[in-house]
Amino acid sequence: MTTLAIDIGGTKLATALIDNNLQVRERRELPTPVSKTPQALRAALQTLVAPLQGRANRVAIASTGIIREGALLALNPHNLGGLMHFPLTQTLEQITGLPTLAVNDAQAAAWAEYYALGGEYRDLVFITVSTGVGGGVVSGGKLLTGVGGLAGHLGHTLADPHGPVCGCGRVGCVEAIASGRGIAAAAEGALAGCDAKTIFSRAGQGDEQASRLIHRSARALARLVADVKATTDCQCVVIGGSVGLAEGYLALVEHYLAQEPWAYHVELLAAHCRHDAGLLGAALLVQGE
Ligand code: ADP
Ligand code: BMX
Ligand code: ZN
């Protein structure tokens, strides 16, 4: 059986073919459309899937947003060009004629990481620091999705009551501070208008403001990790996403976590599946593994 896996993020869309042996083949990426229309997302998905048509038996989607009964609901509409509601599985079933499963991107990634670690850690939490900050919780070897798909949305817990308003409507969410968008939104002066990727490269060149913004993100993330440890007593926290996997970021989170009391310390790991965790997790879930 071959799965056509799709990852829908706030910044990029990715597809690949994944066989039962979990080899990722023919990976392709496209930027997530900035237009606020469902038509634009549908067209982008169609473009991405077209070269792989007829080569898979089923579709597995890992997508940003709350996935409820196959539809995508944005918790933070800013992350998805204002798209509030999108019939995800229905759209892919129409495009491909194949049975389709959809799951939240960070939930899927948590499952891939649990699998990649050989089930050694029965209680594991995955956090993606990317366009937003997403999370997935594996508890006692089971992936938590929640009755309405909201389980694990750790980016929308409190980092700072005086912090910026988050796109979800709450004040001071971790996502509003630590995410790629949160980092970019706080940039001023010479860095105003730069994206997180540019801010990381400026920090590497010695820019003090850039470095401060990255520290601010890592500090908020470390506090989130401590909260997660207190809530789940997980054995490890796996960090993914392009910000989470950026050089030096995990070490900074470790540095700030070490400043928390010992009870909140937990092993931090970089995502073993790197940027394919969402794709692989969705494929594993559709295979029933
Ligand atoms: P998505 O959110 O679509 O899953 P990513 O995981 O790539 O996508 O996260 C996108 C965010 O990561 C953007 O804010 C982007 O600026 C930032 N980013 C991309 N590449 C890097 C990098 N090499 N270093 C730091 N940040 C990066
Ligand atoms: C947001 C939320 C989560 C998602 C997380 C990471 C939306 C559209 N998304 O908190 O569902 O898991 O971002 O998403 O409300 P990414 O785009 O950064 O990968
Ligand atoms: Zn929020």
Q: Your description of this structure?
A:
The chain is α/β, with parallel strands linked by helices. Helices cover 35% and strands 23% of the residues. The chain has helices spanning 38-49, 88-96, 105-116, 174-178, 180-185, 196-204, 208-232, 241-244, 249-257, 277-286, and strands at residues 2-8, 12-19, 24-31, 58-63, 66-68, 71-73, 85-86, 100-104, 124-129, 133-139, 142-144, 236-240, 267-270. The protein has a five-stranded mixed β-sheet with strand order 3-2-1-4-8, sandwiched between helices. The model has no long low-confidence stretch (mean pLDDT 96). The structure holds adenosine-5'-diphosphate, 2-acetamido-2-deoxy-6-O-phosphono-alpha-D-mannopyranose (BMX) and zinc ion (ZN). Zinc ion (ZN) is lined by residues 76, 156, 166, 168, 170, 173, 175.
Largest sheet geometry = 5 strands, mixed
State the helix count. Answer: 10
Ligand identities: adenosine-5'-diphosphate, 2-acetamido-2-deoxy-6-O-phosphono-alpha-D-mannopyranose, zinc ion
Tell the overall outline. globular
Identify low-pLDDT runs.
Answer: none
Range of strand content? 15-25%
User: In order across it, which strands form the biggest sheet?
Assistant: 3-2-1-4-8
Distance between the termini: 13 Å
Order of helices and strands: EEEHEEEEHEHEEEHHHHEHHEH
